[in-house]
Design brief:
Pfam families: ABC_tran (PF00005). The protein is of the alpha/beta class and about 270 residues long. It has a domain of about 150 residues: Rossmann fold. Helices cover about 40% and strands about 25% of the residues. It binds adenosine-5'-triphosphate. Adenosine-5'-triphosphate binds next to helix 1.
Length: about 270
């Protein structure tokens, strides 16, 4: 992969099993594309805003980009270290904040001295006081976001993946994070993927827009253009009336189901 490329995704698909309301597998068409055949390239230093309505596949993509979740088909090539900042990922709920920092450092194979430096950076940035010594399960979502964000910043990865993490923090902390992310963008040339439902935030912060809808990549390009097309789509969808909207959403959902033949061959592959 060329040295100026940070991430290359080629025909990436992620499939989930659907369960019915009794938590049983459905008898037919029970497999569903969270992402389907997604391909793109992102240059180093690019700041990509990922847009898409609820359930379109944005968080799934963030989990694949950060290497937390496995891909079902296709490839993702990454140039550099990546780190995910999300509300509910990456922290062990049973451990205290402090233990989480140390475990993360140890898992990355860092030396004791480096872990101590990182711990101090996290304490300074997160400003969660004595909560540092409480198990994370006692944290509010805003506090988890503070800790998660501070850890990712301190680890100083080449690629940041920020999934809605700012939406739960209070205004002061969200501003502090945005200021720091602007520094990462402008002074350090980091590659950033930024998922937010705030279109203004995406337009102000990002250079490239990536619109994912129904598990597929619809458009990627200059952020203002992509955000404009996405807004038009959302407006059209919002203008739909009850039955029309239900039909539209149902068709969108059905397009993501794996065909039965494909399901059969999957089972055959499993038993053969
Ligand atoms: N672990 C899972 N098991 C089964 N289905 C899942 C799982 N995680 C996500 N999905 C489904 O995959 C689809 C994509 O979900 P994802 O969380 O990526 O969407 P999103 O674009 O981030 O949505 P939102 O804007 O609501 O956060 C959704 O239909 C979701 O229900």
């Amino acid at each position: 992969m060329d040295a100026d490329i940070a991430v290359r995704a080629t025909n990436v698909s992620k499939i989930y099993d659907l369960r019915n309301k009794d938590n049983q597998h459905r008898t037919d068409s029970s497999r569903f594309y969270a992402l389907k055949d997604v391909s793109f390239e992102v240059k180093k230093g690019d700041v990509v805003g990922i847009l898409g309505t609820n359930g379109s596949g944005k968080s799934t993509l963030s989990l694949l980009l950060s290497g937390i979740s496995d891909i079902d088909s296709g490839t993702i090539e990454i140039n550099g270290e990546q780190s995910l900042v999300a509300i509910n990922t990456g922290l062990n709920n049973q451990l205290t904040g402090l233990e989480n920092i140390k475990v993360k450092g140890a898992l990355l194979g860092l030396k004791k001295k480096r872990i101590e430096e990182i711990t101090q950076d996290v304490i300074n940035f997160a400003e969660i006081g004595d909560f540092l010594y409480q198990p994370v399960k006692k944290y509010s979502s805003g506090m988890k976001s503070r800790l998660g964000f501070a850890i990712s910043l301190a680890l100083n990865p080449d690629i940041f993946i920020v999934d809605e993490a700012l939406s739960v923090g209070d205004r002061g902390f969200a501003k502090k994070c945005m200021d720091r992310m602007m520094q990462l963008r402008d002074d350090e040339g980091k590659t950033i993927f930024f998922i937010s439902h705030s279109l203004d935030q995406v337009k102000n912060f990002c250079t490239t827009g990536m619109w994912i809808e129904g598990g597929s990549l619809v458009e990627m390009g200059p952020v203002n253009e992509v955000a404009g097309h996405y807004s038009e789509y959302v407006e059209k969808m919002n203008a739909m009336k009850g039955p029309e909207k239900r039909k539209f959403l149902d068709e969108k959902f059905r397009k993501r189901l794996l065909p039965k033949e494909e399901k059969k061959s999957w089972w055959k592959r499993l038993v053969s």
